[in-house]
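Worked example

This section walks through a single chain of length 463. The input is the sequence exactly as stored; nothing has been trimmed or padded.
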Amino acid sequence: MDNKSFWSLLIIIFCAFQGILGQTCPQSCVRCVVDGLGDVTDVTCSDSRAFQLIPKTVQHLVFQNGSLPNGIVKDFLFLGISELESIEITNYHLKELWGAFLLNCTDLKIMDFSNNEIHSIMKSNFKGPVALEILNLEKNHINLTTDNVFENLGFLKKLHLGNNLIQTLTHNTFEGLINLQILDLSRNKISYMDGHTFQSLSKVKNINLSYNRIRNIPSGLFNGLSNLKMLQLSHNTISTISDNAFVQAGVITLDLSTNQLTKIPTEMLQQISGNKTEVLLQRNNIRMLQKNSLSNIELKLLNLASNGMDMVENDATYNCKIKYLNMRQNMLTTLPETMLIYLNSVIIPQVFLSTNPFVCDCDLIWLGKFLYQKSWKNIPKCSKPIELSRLNIVDYYNQYDTSCLTTTEEITTPFSTSTSRDLSPSSTNTQHDNTTSQPISSSQRQTTPSPTDSVNTKNNTSC
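Given that input, the structure is written out below as tokens.
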């Protein structure tokens, strides 16, 4: 046999050999990938009968939109498939996971059993895949009732448990997850967490606890989580936060929106204070900014929108450095002039005040002046008196500033040529609050004469 014939025969044998191996892919599967050596590496199926015909060389296995008998994944189902790197069984009506069904899969990195009906998981379920890095069990019926379930998953980086029925988290729930970075527990029924629930998650960066039934944040819950960057706690019923819940926590973004907080959690904000930190408190029940409630706090953003807030006390912002302060869509009718100290202390601060029912009177003239001098954008509008509702606060300042002079000199205003009222702190004839008094809330506020009111008064008394 000459060389040419020899190589031709060898090619024929190789192709035949490759074809034989290629036939090991289950015929009922919708997709199979064969590598250059003829080994089946990727399989996608829906028919459960293919479980018994899976090639031993498979590295990536997908079963979708089907079902197993009684929804049970039995012991040692994947025994012998030692090269498996990822497995996805989704929308497959799985109900139970028996024992060590992945016992021999020591190279497995990704396990996705989402969109099923699994009601419990056990420690033995993860006895084999010790190298697992991503575990997705979201959209099941799981309630974590057994401690140390994930103890063998020391390499796990992402754990998705959202949309389940989890109610309680204890100090042993996440024991052993020393490399976990992302933890999703959103849309469960969590109502209780002890103070050491997350103590073993020293490398965690993102925890999502939104859409649960959490009522309070206990002391120590997030202590020492120096790598934690994002914490999502929105859409719960949180009304109290322990003063010591965030000691040495490295939170950069904290979402506490849509809860039931009634006051600013000052101690907590001081613990996570930093020029890159963003805190979302919109849609709570914080009706008042009390004195010193934002003291010694430095933030990039504090969102207080949509709280029904109608009062800001003097010195509420004392010694605070908040670059972006969002107070939109509240019930504020005035602001204390002591806020000027805060506004002038922050480099290029942005305070968002639109959609508040501001009363444009002499108490608020300082704000119009400040906004005018700083060429502010998003200038809030006057709500009352009705004659000024067409104006924003800067327009009001520009047109009526002279009506609010705080001396007893005789002045000429667009509305009168009479002696103005003395609005100084020492005046005994005025009913107007000075800048160090407590502001009046919208529910208690008496009507204060505005420049336009003087047009209709008998004595033409100016503001």
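What to look for: The longest strand covers residues 40-45.
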